[in-house]
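Example 3.2
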Amino acid sequence: MPLIKPEFNRIARFAPLIGLLIGLSQSIIWLLLSNNGWPRESLVLIVLGIGGLATGGIHLDGLIDTADGIAAGKDKCLEAMRDSRVGAIGIQVFLLVIFFQIAALIKLGNSALFVIPIAAFWSRVAPLWAIEKFPYLHANGLSKFHKKNWKGYLKEIKPSLLILILISSFLIFNSMEIEKAYSILICLVSGIIPAIIIPHLLGKMIGGHSGDSYGASVV
């Protein structure tokens, strides 16, 4: 029997599920370390580090390159994004985003156990909007296959909608306090706002999207 050779041409549609699994693993590690007396500040740094390791830092690299490209202006944007050298603006944006994430997670405390998977899920929905609404900017870019094999937003978003329905049903019918369940549910649904606004704004500023700006949308 021949070996099955899976194709990843439409892997983007499953990215939110992958993000959810990464977020859940971060939350599990947070919970385990918290129960063993680790301080909150250490937990935040550990889970952010794990998130970076799980993806090979590819999204953070995209954030830096996109920031450098936008700073260079429209005429030199793509050239700056493809330059392997890191610019001052890219470093500044990287640090600002990381600082914001650290501050938010410290403030959230143990509520981060719920928020991290939700954020990881919606962050992977963001590139789907970018693929749908904007042209791909590099003729020979590595991420071009996402656009080439795209079947339309309504079709590609179906796996994500199924996940949302399952999680929402669990929260509504679970035995946890009703107020807490609805708070998490609101948090879950509200993630669609940045998942659309951020890739849309980036696409407008750049004039389209690339693999780097897909990564920036995730971060």
